[in-house]
Fold:
Amino acid sequence: MSSQKGNVSRTRGQKYQNSTAFRNNKYGTSVQVKKANDKVHEGICKRCKEVLEWKVKYMKYKPLTHPSKCVKCLQKAVKDAYHIICKACALQLELCAKCGKKEDIVIPLRTENEDEVEEEGGAQKASHERRGRSRRTRAQDDDEDDDFDDEFDTGSDLDSSDGDTRPRNKQCKDPVPQVSTLQIQDPSKLG
Structure:
């Protein structure tokens, strides 16, 4: 047989070859596929990372439905699929969370404290960006909003269509010009 194990004298190439590569989102993506594609595999060695990426790429990755037992601390704390060690034990013992070997970790585990600091940093950055707008810009935005509200004003400060019962702030407006003093020219005399 030409396909017998150990037969290295085979000369021809592969008989059937796909013309296009497999895509796991070809017919739209389900929630499970989206989560698998977005998942960052951290706390594992290079080989285990490649295995998990292959499983995700070819739709073989199946997430855990409930936590499994860690082989080090014997607690139900393993929340990632195909892992045998929980994140806490893997971080403390510096082991790969999937194979359990002491290998070089490709993407190190982030602790919960680092996640909280990163989330707070993002919130602070967003609030800083909001504060960074100039007062003049905010005042212009407020003026534009007031212009739209004035067109639909019914005359009562307490009546509003958005359910807000607080009285609106009145703005100083330019006085309306006297129309009686204007002189209107006849268009037939102009031309």
